[in-house]
Amino acid sequence: MAAPCGTSARLIRIKDTRQEVTFVCERIDLLQPINLLPRTAPRHPAAHTASPDGVPRASLRRVVNLPALVLYAVGVSLGAGIFVLVGRIAGLSGALAPLTFLTAGVIVAFTAFSFAELSSRLPHAAGEAAYVHAAFGQRTLARVVGLSVAIAGTISAAAIVNGCRAYVQQLIAAPDWTIELAIIAVMTAIAVWGVTQSMIATGLVTILEAGTLIWIASVALTSGVTPEPAIVATASSEGIAGVFAALLLAIFAFIGFESAVNMAEEVRRPTRTIPLALVATLVIVASLYALVSAAALSVASPAALAQADAPLALVYRLATGKEGAFLNGLAVTATINGVLALIVMVSRLLFGMAADGFLPPGLAWVWPRTRTPLVATLAASATVLLLALLAPIEPLARASSTVLLLVFVVVNAALLKIKLRREPVGPGVFSVPAWVPAGGVLFSLLPVVWEALRLFH
After folding, report:
1. How many CA atoms lie within 13 A of 379 on its CB side?
2. 26 - beta bridge partners?
């Protein structure tokens, strides 16, 4: 479709009207609206005013660029996946753990590209809820999908807190609930402080985290230490069945790539930045997971990794003969980074849904001093704390993966419906073929079906 404003126009922002979301093109001498997704949810008046008397309300601050968004999304995934779950995945799939991670990467790739187009068509903090409403026009379905994403995000954060506690307790002796409360309180304070501060903290820790993982992998691969071949062979006897048994946990390790879409109202040039961030995040995370799991299995048996509360500390000890107490500190920092990123993501989702009338308007309240959604942030943090105190990590991870995969099915179906009714694509909008969301529906359903069969048999 030719650009409605001419070839010199560019898509710069979204203008919310009473009944629709309008893309706006900018030229030097002309502003012209382009209607792309006419059935999105109307923005709730509470998103624009502080009170019924019409006093203007503070909006979110648009300060996030591409590198910051990539580091944010990568940080969400890495803390949950490698530092906490690599041992459990190795225990289930044995020497095929790297293949398990790569298989999970292929499954989520279809959905990542669907998210890339939807976020480019409709950059909105409500993310998945807005996409589903735009496609199906069903507010109830959109509300259920949005709340499902919020639940999955809080479950993921709780699982990370649960896993982080094991590393902390190797450094200090303290009750479980004290450690979990302290972690969540500090991360909530940073999230409330401001999005710039949250992104700086997340970005720095993500760089440290990725560097640490690469360093551990290089140490393990060059150590010359190998586990007993008989143990490895026994642990690998499950074969492809073991890969599928561990697949839901591996998909949980990728949770985080989709969180980029909920930052849409704080991202610069979101129609370009968010798709690029999604693709870059998936490539970086899949590469690191495959590398580190292969390195871990080069020095430790799958059974030993599965039994370890801090599997990467075990890998370092086996590879060097030294205690990895300092590594526990790095692991703590890295895993709580995922907690911060998920609290930020869930709070923006709740904010966007409240602003669009899907949730109570109080959740859309923005603290003028920091330009952050204060009520939504506190609600997200309280839910994370409750879940962290009540459930162990593996059931949390499996529940989160299942919920998120079902959401992926609906989101892919939403893009497929938009494409089948030939919704126009505006200038500069990222687009994928229709078989991509169709594949996303199929590959998101398969692990859920496999898990259901595993539980019943």
Report:
1. 21
2. 10, 31
Distance CA 421, CA 226 (A): 56
Domain that holds residue 309: 39-45+57-456
pLDDT tens-digit map of 235-252: 444 567 777 778 877 887
The distance in angstroms from the start CA to the end CA of the chain is 52
Predicted TM-score of the model (pTM): 0.79
Q: What is the arrangement of strands in the sheet containing 21-26, beginning at the earlier edge strand?
A: 10-16, 21-26, 31-37
Helices (H) and strands (E) in the chain, counts: 16, 3
Q: Which residue has the tokens 């903290």?
A: 201
Task: Answer whether residue 79 is part of any domain.
Answer: yes
State how far the Cα of 329 lies from the Cα of 3, in Å rounded to an integer. 53
* Contact by Cβ (8 Å): 38, 20: yes
Cα 250 to chain center, whole Å? 13
Is 7 contained in some domain?
A: no
Overall domain count for the chain? 1
Which one, of 141, 81, 106, 149, lies nearest residue 440 by Cα?
106
In tens, the pLDDT along 363-384 reads 999 998 888 999 999 999 999 9
Question: The CATH number of the domain where 156 resides is what?
Answer: 1.20.1740.10
